[in-house]
Structures are given as C-alpha cells and as structure tokens.
Amino acid sequence: MPAPLTPEDVRLAVRAVVVHAAEEWPNGPLCRNDGASYPCRLHRWGRRVLENHGLNERQIEALIRHGNPFVHVPFPFTYGSPAQGRAATAPPARQAPGYPPRSQAGSAGYPPRSQTGRVGAPGTRPALRPGGPGRPVAPPATAPRWPRAS
Fold first, then answer.
1. What digits encode the pLDDT tens for the residues 17-38?
2. Which class for 13: exposed (0-12), middle (13-18), buried (19 or more C-beta within 10 A)?
C-alpha cells in the first residue's frame, strides 16, 4: 500500500506537471524543463499524484494551461461541491465563556447595524466647509529673504 498523500506532495506535484509540461519540437514533444522526451519522469510522477488526489484529466490539463506552478489545490480535494458526502449542516455556534448566547435576529434587542456616516469628535470642524469651492490662500506675511531665480 502506498504512503498517504500529504499537502506538500500535492503542492510539489502541481509544480512538477506545470514546470515539466510539453514543448513542441520538430522531432516531437520534449519536456520544457529538461529536454527529455515528454512526458518526463517528474511529469508522470506529478500526474500520478494528482490523479491519486482526486483530480481528473481535465482538471490536470487546466492546471497545466494555467501555467502557475504555485496554484493552490485544496487538501483534501473534494470533487464537485464541498459538501459532497457530508451532511449540509451549519457549524455549531461557539459561545465565549462567561457571556450570554447570541440571538440570531439582532443582538440583544438592538436594531441591525447599517453603514452610517462618519462622526467626528466634538469640537472638530466638518469636512465640507460652507462657502466657496476651495480655501482662500493668504499671501505670505513677509517677502522671502532669498532672491528669486530668473
């Protein structure tokens, strides 16, 4: 019986099939990385690991076409929907020790939250100032002490 797959095995297998992809040459397809006849040993190993992990031929070809050797393949891989083979139940709500349980519709009778405007601290000026389109620029109090470049 082969050893069970680890997330690192799957990650390395994705790198192997993407980096050791086929490249067309006049005398036939060769490995893009090492020039060996395609499929090279590492590409075959990576494809075998991904097939054992649950990916089908179409999904492996899509990984190769994607071209990113660091693309994430979930571990454990579930074909189809994530709830396949499991009951579709919500995870149990965790309750912090020493606090009352939360209710679903609004928390403790408060109305549901909504996005509100930003409120400044008391004594601050509002962001939009009444009056003209911009702030007037006051002339400098004194003339500059250095000569102007001309």
1. 999 999 999 999 999 999 999 9
2. buried
pLDDT of residue 3: 78
Nearest to 12 by CA among 23, 24, 20: 20
Which of 26-35, 75-84, 105-114 is modeled with the greatest confidence?
26-35
Task: Give the DSSP H/E element, type plus range, for residue 29.
Answer: strand 28-31
Q: Residue 32 is encoded by which pair of tokens?
A: 């893009």
Q: What is the pTM of this model?
A: 0.51
CB 86 within 8 A of CB 94: no
Total residues belonging to the chain:
150
Q: Which residues lie closer than 8 Å to 75 by C-beta, 6 or more apart?
A: 7, 10, 53
Given CA atoms 30, 35, 38, 42 in this order, what sign does their dihedral have? negative
Angle between helix axes 41-53 and 7-19 (nearest 10 degrees) is 130
Q: How confident is the model at residue 12 (pLDDT cuts 50, 70, 90)?
A: very high
In whole angstroms, give the CA distance from residue 52 to residue 43: 14
Phi, psi angle pair for 7, to nearest 5°? -60, -35
